[in-house]
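Follow-up to my earlier ticket, as requested here are the two runs.
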Amino acid sequence: MKKVLFGFLLVTLFLAFGTEVKAETGVRYNTFTVSNNRLVRTQTAYVPVAQTRFVGGISLDEPTDIHITPNDVMYITTNTPTGGKIIVFDLKTEEAYTVGEGFLNNPTGVFANDNGDIYVADRLGQIAYKLDHDGNILQTYTRPTSPLFGSEDFQPRKIVSDPRGNVYILNLGTRGLAQFSNDGEFLGYFGTNTIQPTLRTVLQFIFFTEAQRARLFNLSPPEISNIAIDQRGLIHTSSLGVEGQGVKRLNISGGNLLPEMLNAPDLVDIFVGPIGNIYTITRSGMIYEYDREGNLLFAFGGQDISNQIQGLFNTPAGIAVDSTNTIYTLDRASGEIKIFVPTEFTNLVHQALASYQDGNYIASQGPWEEVLKMNDFFDLAHRGLGNAYFSLNRYDEALEEYYIAYDRAGYSDAFWEVRNEWLLANAGVGVAGFFILLIGFVINMKVNFTHFMMNPIKKGIRKIRDKVKVIDDILYLFTYLKNPADASYFIKRRNQVSAYSVTVLLAIYFMLYIYYIYNLNFLFNFRHLDSINIVEELVKVVLPVILWVFCNFLIGTIREGEGRLKDVYITTVYSLAPYFLMLPVITIISNGLTYNEAFIVTFVTTISIGVTVLYFFFMVKETHFYNVKETIQSIVISAFTMAMMLLGLFIVYILLNELFILIKDLVLEVFYRVTNT
């Protein structure tokens, strides 16, 4: 039955719009979704089925904006050589007519409420209108006389109205949305973008003169490019030149309710669909669909200035969606409306989302499972299944789905339940073990049986240390940690430790670090394990140590430090021990925690870093026999020298790379001339 209705809808559309579908069956663009915060290819989400210059027999001329109401009535603003008009087309009855002819000059934005009232922004006429269903003027919105409006011109570009009758007009875009009451009274600006400070602007503000700051900070916030409103009455905006916050859902105070999103910086239009999904279109012809929570579902489309490829755009002007999730877009340059219908895969996603976003996770389970049969890499489906399993108390399965979907919050909640079940099942063993240890501790206080157990072990370790120099040097680390001053003396004066042994210790540090990055709990590990390069990780660990040793030795030589290059190397590696030795401890602890106990990981990590910093300070002090002031100066100057060396190495790398490219080009040029003579 659904297939019959779907086919009937397509036939109706083709007849109503009077167009032909191209013979090509495949789409000419790729479709992407997000997996672990990265764009990945997925199957086609929408198929272009029609493009036409006429709607219900009425020419589109130069279309500028489109809006579709929940009851599937389409409104399109368009400009003609003699003025402007609004095309009204009922997608169900196929009736079409125009309004606004005769008084509209350059309509660029249109909106209609549930009562059939039409709101239109006339940029060239510097006025906005509220019309009834037949096009009669009910209210006008002109330039406010209030000083709150400012000195800018009134050039309304886009317009929407909320359920309370308030009207929001996008004027020039940099000051936000001009808010009017239903009777035309200006209420102020709403949803203004802000300028985000950067390190560069902060430094410029600190060091620039008054005149320089006055010129520099005469900046405008990012421009709002379009507005939309959802069925709950929440205003949505799209902005130009903003990544991460280019799409906003505004609360009553103008704050953003959406998280940071993956959005393009050249957004042209925005629309909120029937189930709360957000649709945007860019100047480059890309269409993005997000769910109600801001998760990217699909990205597809592209640009074709030749107007020859179906589904691509020359100059996108608007986007809207009807009750069947069919997408309608406008191309201003070609004067066409382009129609995209969802595929079976997309319909399943929407069906699951409709239940999922209403909190009915169990009902969404079936559709999500069907989605995963078609695309097992669709993160949102795994998250939806995780929520369904969680609602059914199937926590182990939920844990697995959350892990696949990279949903750390859901994973934490599911792991909490799994851990509780395990603790309850093993409570008896835990209590028995505790009392056994307690009894053993009491007996040991009387008999001291651990002394007899540990003595052979200590003697065995002592024999190994006497026979194997490397092991003795590595274990000398703990002597250093107990008393850095005395240990540093023996390292400098008696050559207690060899550089080779410390190099082996540094290799052990690296292995502990690799264990840490691969085995840290998923909740606290945000790295892409499949993209880790062992060589890069080795450079991250070894290069700073080598640079520090070399730079600190040079500075120590200049500033009368006692440490030799070998001494600086050995004590530097020893001083890093608290951090690297705690990495496996942090890793093991993390695998038993949820986000409710995340402070434990943070606390242990901070303590290990703090202790390492202290040992590092005393390392410099004791190695070079400095006082506190000289130690601080040595550390600061050594760090600065490291930065300069890195900068120098980077410059040399760039120059050598350019030299290599030059030599390569010369060789290829000579080869080309020789082979063609």
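Run two:
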Amino acid sequence: MKRIFWHILLFTLLLTLVYPVQVFAAGDGNMDGGGSEMGQGTAQNFWSPGNDGVRITVVNAETGEAAAPSVDFSNKSFSKPIFHFEKHSKLDYRAGAALNPIQGNYLYHIPAATIPYIMTSNTHPANIQAIRQYFCSEFAAKMISDATGLEYETLIGGDYKLVIEPICYFTYQGNFCAMTATEAAMYNQLSGGALVSMLPNVIQKNLPLAIFLEKDDLGFPAWTGPTNERVTDEQIIAALGIGIVSYKDLPAPEIEAPDVVYRVDTDVITSITLNSKRRLTPSSPGKVTFYIKDRTYRVTNIVMPSYSSQVVWVKWHTPSTPQDIRIRVSVSSGNTSETEFIARIESLDENPPPDPQATDTNPRFTMPSLPRDSQKTSASWSVWYAYWVSDFCDEGHDHGDWEYDANYYYASLDGDMELWPDDIVPTASGKNMKSGYGVKENANARLSSNAPSSHYTTAQTAVSYFSEFKYQTYWRLLSRRQNGLNSTFQFKENPYSTYNRNVHFSPVWYPDHSDYTVYTRIIDAWTPAGMLSVNVNDSVDINGSLFDDWVRPYSFTYMREAWDR
């Protein structure tokens, strides 16, 4: 059957015509996506959700000419022979390249960091924001640099763009195939519609609508048609199945680089240092006003000796959405070098890891070292106060004067964390578990201070990073379960958990007889002298994988959480 299929394919390719094709841009994120359920399939014709990838071509940003051969990436490790076409980009096909079928010898790369789902299905919905974020990242640029042989700095210098095309790996007439959306549409035309007759939704919805342009680029139009309906071969060839990442002419920030970075929806402290050559007294005090968004914060009754300084601060709550805020400061007495600065409000809850899969592999994985992020675990500051010392003369007049002293304050932060196998891992023993199952975390932060509560905030944020991603690329923002001087944090509910467990799933490929270490930064304990933070980590021992616990295979999601079996 394979030989007959391939001979028919070779014959029909003699009829190849030139078709227009569309491209897609990113870097500034010029891509969108759609699609939905898989639709029909048979034992000889089917697609399994998650069997997808991308073809990336580096092209000249002005001419669209390829700067290096196209390279394919997929999370999967395929052991069976793959029927595919000689690697061409959508631009090549637009220029007249023909479909050239090849059996076997399919070359592709498995990235160190898992690519988000590219094609949408009922069980594995794709997230275009995650796709855009992945391929616009520094990690992806370096990955592509390594795969193509182009220098990293050259790649991102502004002269090149990445053309990204979704790839589907599917079975057709019993043969395992790899095709981009454009190749599938061209072959379907050449086969008289035979391919779509077997896999209609996969070929004319899930694959082409996985990625498309939001705006015109490289001579290809943005897609403005439906995103959840079947499309035609002509529409696919002209305008679908393509995205573009651009490293040139990115939108300039509305305001300059930030002077301080805060998290969204967080209590923070903004401080300046007030200097004064003359003394400030209770009868002639200083005043500082902070203008933050649409609110005004006034700090009054500031006193200090002449030629002295005083830290002055305001405690406020950041907005719930990321943005840059211009903070202005005015003083009525004295001076400060910090009269205007930029605060960046960021969200850390935008890059959670993708769902690990049973077929994930990473044969080139090496154990990374723990990060060496700076941490500040203590701070001190002081506040001047004035008191009157009387000096009465013989006539009864008080010739006294103001004298000054200071209250000295401190704050310190320490923390720890515990990492354990999830409670429903069936074969866990203490800290020992098999890879593929979930782990749970409990991180603790303890703040101590002799200052009033208006002088500090307790630790409010904890972020965990994972060794399978080299402690970068992806992270989890933890949920604060206990507030106050003693704060506790845990994983949020995992959206891929059948039972809504507060876990992170370890990758099934993780090396045997090794420590699986999670690294967590506890931050956002603010003081007038800056933010306190502490870094903690803990491990579980990996011995074996969850496949060792099963006599016969079930679905991967069932196996890793089948606590009631």
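The only thing I checked on run two: The chain has ten helices and 25 strands. Let me know what else you need.
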